[in-house]
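Data availability (excerpt). The following record was deposited with the supplementary files.
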Amino acid sequence: MEENDCERFQALLYTCNSTEPIHISNLNHPARQGLALPYVMTRERGEQLVDIAAYCLMPNHLHLLLREIDYGGISSFMQKVGTGYTMFFNKKYERTGALFSGKFKAVHVGSDAHSRRVINYIHANAAELYEPGWKKGMVRNVKKLKNQLLAYPYSSLIDYEGKERPQARILAKDAARELADAVPSFKALLDDARAFYNYEKNTLTELEG
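Predicted structure:
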């Protein structure tokens, strides 16, 4: 709904990635009222549940590329993030009940080529906000779209492009480099993202048929 909601989710991506229980004190600055994202990113977390290789937060959904550290780590991490964010959102907006529609959807990434396309699809996802036809190859202004994606603060693309910010601590960049060993050109990023989208769409159609 607003900037603070997105920053809360980023804070949870960092804080919930731990075998330790999460508490509100892990998210709020002791000398201030409410969230201070740079402060949260300095907190020690203990043993982590997953490696987060890439992410993108959208207004009504999100995308994550995760590598499990121990068995069950992805499920535990997603449960902690989902529960923590739902509690925050319901309290803030005075609502009740579930926030997310069902269990998270997981796709296994089984090859280097697949992982590269997944990373690029995640990083291109915010293009939907600026160029709704990008998945079909319809982009009115490629240079403008590139600048918009590089300025989008709720994606890990910024961190891979070298900008220094506290949110970089969310990522396990070493894990991502094992999956995709180079930052692609913007054209390659969009091409890979479209290829992944079309592959997943066609696979789903075949399964449903």
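Summary of structural features: Residues 112-208 form one domain.
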